[in-house]
Amino acid sequence: MAARLNSNVKKGEAILDLTKYINKGVHVRFFGGRAVSGVLKGFDHLVNLVLDGATEYLRDAEEPYRMSGDTRPLGLLVCRGTSISLLGPQDGFQAIDNPFPSPSSDTSSGTESSPGSTGTWDQMLRGLEDTRLPREAEEIGHVCTRR
């Protein structure tokens, strides 16, 4: 039964074909919130990555879910595939407004880019800073939340 479901993927074959991103800039987000960018030099069938010239985007010490805007150079980096939550190219991202605004969010400050405008990776990371669910979803109880 399992062989029939996975007949398209051969044993030892990569889950994702990342060859089009070799020697191009990519951004990687890890479970736990860490984020890095660098040039993809290689990968294997488990999606372990090798990044060259990697830079880590640091988080705020008081607010662990907020990016501080500071960076730290890491150089050559090996990323374990099981800890990667998001992988994307450096170019081609588009920043959008949060579709789930929370009542506690400050709307008076405005956003750095309007919907439909081309944004940077930093703007996208700022959009992912607060991953909490809207209060209504937590009250309904249909959604599991992190504690």
TrEMBL record:
Composition skew (Basic and acidic residues), residue ranges: 127-141
Predominant cellular place of this UniProt entry's protein: nucleus
Biological processes annotated in GO: mRNA splicing, via spliceosome; nuclear-transcribed mRNA catabolic process
Keyword tags: mRNA processing, mRNA splicing, Nucleus, Ribonucleoprotein, RNA-binding, Spliceosome
Residue ranges with Low complexity bias: 103-120
Domain of life from the UniProt record: Eukaryota
Subcellular location, record wording: Nucleus
GO MF term set: RNA binding
Pfam families on file: LSM
GO cellular component: catalytic step 2 spliceosome; Lsm1-7-Pat1 complex; spliceosomal tri-snRNP complex; U12-type spliceosomal complex; U2-type prespliceosome; U6 snRNP
Sm domain mapped to chain residues: 13-93
Stretches the record annotates as Disordered: 90-147
UniProt family annotation: Belongs to the snRNP Sm proteins family.
Official protein name in the record: U6 snRNA-associated Sm-like protein LSm7 isoform X1
Organism from which the protein derives: Petromyzon marinus (Sea lamprey)
Gene this protein is translated from: LOC116941004
